[in-house]
Amino acid sequence: MNEQQLKQQIRNENEAAEYNSKAQSTSLQEVSVYSAIGLRLAHDLTQIIPGQFKGRLFKKGHLITEEDIPKLLDIGKEHIYVMELGEHDLHEDEAARRMAQALMDDQLVLSEPHEGKVSVKSSVVGIAKIAKEIVDEVNRIGEIALATIRNNQAVMVNGQLAATRAIPLVVNKQKVELVEQIAKQYRAAHGAAPISVVALPQRQIGLLTTGSEVYNGRIKDKFGPAVKAKLEALGSIVAEQRFAPDDRDIIVREIRELVACGYDMIAVTGGMSVDPDDRTPGAIAASGAEIVSYGTPMLPGSMLLVGYIEGVPIVGLPGCVMHDPYTSFDVLLPRLLLGERIDKEDIVALGYGGLLGC
Ligand SMILES: Nc1nc2c(c(=O)[nH]1)N[C@H]1C(S)=C(S)[C@@H](COP(=O)(O)OP(=O)(O)OC[C@H]3O[C@@H](n4cnc5c(N)ncnc54)[C@H](O)[C@@H]3O)O[C@H]1N2
Ligand code: MOO
Which enzyme type, at the first EC level (predicted)? Predict the structure, then answer.
């Protein structure tokens, strides 16, 4: 090859490299909004008016018209992007969609991408099963985000479990492919998606409300309705409610009778703290229950008791369960209803992050 041929070859190679790099990398061109009429938006545009509105003002692909210009200026956009996606990149919407599809169980409902985010919702009342180690692994990749609720948290119909998003407007395809690979490996090893929901079965609960002031009619029972509401929200019912004064033998007898009825769970309310009239923990122990824990390191719900009596869960519910929407009882309830055994470590784990105030 003579010198000229060599130069030509280098020129060819350079041109090819330039062509390839154009084809491979995403080009983002800034265009003044005044020159943007007739162009299409490369991504959703958000408006925030504190206290009034937060949401999508313009959708990706929107054809910009003259009357959009003041609206764009009002949300601080003097320029927009015109984008040509490189072959190794994914648009934020596509990245979010693919990650959600890879990580989520089929039963879950995926939203359309909205401002670059895909939301994942439950179609049933259930308990979230979320592999924390996978969430961490995905979030370690960088430039992509996976946010979830906590493992074992209750979720309502249409309740959100997770959301995916790419941080930049375009993200390297390999990052999303890595998420897909991580999810595939998890599914192969566990036979389930890293993020899923298990529908809660309908359980029948036997409820015993203690407290002489309630038993004698001095005050109206407020515990029964509160416990019923919490259970019904999760698809279970209080099949029977009984009342007892602050008398240990009577409480023991009532517990035994509720156990004999074959309910799926027994709940005893009131009398859970330190006063001489607080007979419930002693009565639960005397009724033959194996106590996993009397007391939890979570506030509210520190005086909660969890045990098992002939294999049936029994809980002692302190006063706060009556008025507080989220206590240690609410944390453990979905698992109790599912039939998962609660052990001492589950109680220990309530302390970190468990100070919600009461
Ligand atoms: N010195 C301490 N005081 C308290 C402690 C403690 O460890 N040391 N613990 C606190 C915590 S935490 C809770 S929760 C409360 C209440 O615990 P109890 O489960 O023993 O609640 P009671 O004493 O039975 O009742 C408290 C309050 O609520 C009323 N009540 C009870 N049952 C009903 C019902 N079915 N309907 C309507 N109202 C009800 C009761 O009349 C009392 O007024 O203790 C803290 N204090
Ligand atoms: O058990 Mo109390 O139950 O923390 O407010």
Answer: transferase
